[in-house]
Amino acid sequence: MKKIGEEFMEMTKYHNISESDQKKGVAPPLLQTDYDKTKQIIDLPKPEDIKIHGGNLREAIENRVSVRVYAIEPMTLEELAWLLWTTQGIKEIHDKKIYTRRTVPSAGARHAFETYVLINKVEGLKPGVYRYLAIDHKLVEYNLEEGIQGKLAEAAYGQKMVMTGSATFIWVAIPYRMCWRYVERGYRYLHLDVGHVCQNLYLAAESIESGVCAIAAFHDDQMNNLLNLDGKKEFVIYLASIGKK
């Protein structure tokens, strides 16, 4: 049997990677992928105005567990904005728009993800899929078709918490944003970076009395197709459901 994992690790060692587009002088990719300007934009509470009252860091770390069963209580828009900001919020944009500094670490500050959110129970939002515009700190409608929750849950091999939580975060990788600098090794960093993002979600959720369950088991092609992603230049890399405890 071909040992794909071992081959991946070998071929992404530094002595096997080629010269990067960054070193070749190629312009960097966009910091945020484009979106349909005809879709409705939803303003979110500004990060500096969000008031979170729960817990401290020690308590969050001690209490953090994966939670798969949630209360009926919906999440507020302010709480959703808090979670979006703590997982991909932008603190600084480089003056030449080469990189951003965010609330999570990333190799070379490449931040190669776009955040999609399946909304089930959030006050003021219709159910469906939205995309977080990190640079603008806004949401944009993406897919509000009836039944999309069930289709995404099916693509996650029937894991019901995708549908029963207040929301499910879906992180989409844009590999060239990372590989522009790190070439093939960038694929390693994608998987490391998304772990940082998800851990921030776990800890931030504790402060709003909510629980998270990370989801790595999903049908890649089915999930990508549901979000109209090509699976190569853009692909789903990780999910996490969240809801009130």
In short:
By secondary structure, the protein is α+β, with helices and mostly antiparallel strands. The protein has helices at 4-11, 57-63, 77-88, 148-155, 161-164, 175-182, 186-206, 220-226, and strands at residues 41-43, 90-93, 100-102, 113-119, 128-133, 138-143, 167-173, 210-215, 235-244. The protein has one domain (4-31, 40-244): NADH Oxidase, CATH 3.40.109.10.
Which key features would you list for this structure?
single chain, 245 residues, alpha+beta, NADH Oxidase, two-stranded antiparallel ribbon
Describe the structure.
- The protein has one domain (4-31, 40-244): NADH Oxidase.
- Helices cover 31% and strands 21% of the residues.
- The termini are far apart.
- The chain has helices spanning 4-11, 57-63, 77-88, 148-155, 161-164, 175-182, 186-206, 220-226; strands spanning 41-43, 90-93, 100-102, 113-119, 128-133, 138-143, 167-173, 210-215, 235-244.
- It has eight helices and nine strands.
- It is globular, with a radius of gyration of 18 Å.
- The chain is of the alpha+beta class.
SSE topology:
Blueprint: H1 4-11, E1 41-43, H2 57-63, H3 77-88, E2 90-93, E3 100-102, E4 113-119, E5 128-133, E6 138-143, H4 148-155, H5 161-164, E7 167-173, H6 175-182, H7 186-206, E8 210-215, H8 220-226, E9 235-244
Antiparallel strand pairs: 1-6, 2-3, 4-5, 4-7, 5-6, 7-9, 8-9
